[in-house]
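Repro:
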Amino acid sequence: MRPALSPEQLKTVYRHLARRYDLQHALITARSDQRGRKLLVDATVKPGDRVLDCGAGTGTTGIMAARKVGRQGRVVLFDLSEAMLAEARRKIAAAGLQSRIGFQAGDMVHLPYRDGSFDVVLSSYSLCPLYDPVAGALELYRVTRPGGRLGIAHSSEPDAPWVKVLATAIEAVAWRLPWLSMGCRPVNVLPALKQAGARVVLSKKIGVPLWPFAVLVLEKPV
């Protein structure tokens, strides 16, 4: 796995990307990113749930979740980048969902929440740039309540060997341009989550062959 950008580097990258992030990510992923978000929300969120959207970015996944939890539910958007959260606030105000959504900035490897604080925890494409994705995934699991659901989408390695060679070559170029790579690289967090006790409800790959995403839905045993 390629070494991550530092948190300060990521803050700089996403400060410059915030206003165009949605468009850029959709273009790079051929809009499969939206499919991943919808899969996660549809498989995990129910009316009345308390949801943490971790690495929430511009709030796209959080808005989907807020619409589903209804007036009795609550969604917390957590992200390293204040600039991305500012963009999320703008979008949420436009959607009229301010009363259902809260915001918190911080490091997802050290979440400021007690064990089992949320019915649902979501991470859509936020573990890929993290300096310790396994530690981040275990933090997501920690704050999921027993009986609760954890939904994760992250960059994954291509399956076909020749595609993997091509993807590696493209990644080597993109990595020199942080605004293009967005600090993302393939990660693998499922083994650590299974070892921690998570039960796999859904595990599948989506996306274009060069840049596939792993979509995981897990349940924390009671």
